[in-house]
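input
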Amino acid sequence: MATIDTNWDVIVIGSGLGGLTSAARMAKAGLRVLVLEQHVFPGGYAHHFLRKVKGTDIVYDFDVALHQTGNLTPGRSMHKILTELGVLERIGLNRFDIAYRTRGPAHDLQIPADAGDYEKLLCQTYPEHASGVRDLFASLRRIDESDAGAPSLEAMQSMGLSLQEFVESHVRDERIAAIFATLWGYLGLVPSKVSAFMYAMMWTSYHFGGCFYVKGGGQALSNAFVSVIEENRGKVLLNTEVTQIITENGRAVAVETARRGTFRAPVVVSNASAPLTFHRLLDDAALGREDCERVDSLPLACSIHQAYVGIRGNAFELGLRDRGGFFNPTYDMDAEWDTVERGDYRASGWLMGNHDLADPGHAPGGRSILHVATIANGALWVDLDEATYREKKRALEEYLIDRLAEAIPDVRDRIEVCETGTPYTMMRYSWNPSGSIYGYAYTPTSHSIFRPQPRTSIPGLYLAGAWTVPGAGFGGTMLSGYNTAKLVFEDIEGRPRDQA
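output
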């Protein structure tokens, strides 16, 4: 094992996008930054995994999480951040005119990425509600002013509302409400439960900020961050599990690892989950008592069921013509949430797509990469005995493949690789409680500003990622890491700092 310096300016625990963004910003500002990652790939949920077809040299490269991302048009927040950090120049982008397909009991629409085109589609499809639709989109435009800086007045007014309350203040039609709320799975709560503010932030990022896929997927984005860090005297160490955050005189000063010993730094940024940080990693739990009042009081977000499938043949020609399609069996979203809570995925909606349409040429020649997923209650997959778990996972996989068979009837005959992920899978790789994929739930009282603050009560210890402000998703975690770095600069220099 190669030797490495044991003293750094900053140590970042975990290489999710929050950790990588904070590390890249600090490294470019001249700090020596060490990122420690337990996995063999960087990126957290923004990484890929490889599966070889038995008996061949054919390898499928599956993107764990990225379906699409936004705010990457010039002038938008993510474009500015990735440009400043030197990441944008290292990646390629595919931009889409169609954001997604949405299908329900009485609708089946291809949703334009452009907000103006989307508004026209709804007005033409439901002319009797055109006035309400226009009011809704006008409100979203005012909320979108927040992307330029501080939250707009309209955004502030939406902070305490549910998405359902927000939509009903403009238009009352279950079809339009369901169409507009199609992306609720990206936040993990149905309209009556999810924050209107956070949904609007996510929605506007796509429909005002552009709908994109990073060429090469989430791993290409993560690798670009790693390059920036290491070209600026930093280091990303993989397969290096942090087992403890060491404090001295009440201050974070070092971390202990399972295989590489101790590394010291006056600043430690945890990209691990907030519960893990304070309850398992911190060497003196009493120091985090003040932080834990919030860490332990907020509800956990959902988890997910997923199948990653590699098949022989061109999926588009075979019938799966959606890059991303959302299929909901009912307009009663609360009833659907009940199915999620009790684990009845057979009665829930699902997302499926043809990855070839997101990243052409990424699949092996003559083959296609497909994905299908449903939202899950992670608590139902914890503490199962091995036999029960395997049977439950087998039944889930069969169901998910059945969904793909609706588009490609002979899909089972074409499958070369199938990897199914459960909430337990998410928990095992991320260490997130119950396999949460969004940190805390996005309710009107647990989103963004209600999450644990990035500057903890323990000097030298900071948080970055989904569990702190502003929250999860590619855009949310990168913004979190960017802002955490700013706080580190302020504390090091003893004054506010606007630029790295």
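quick obs: The mean pLDDT is 96.
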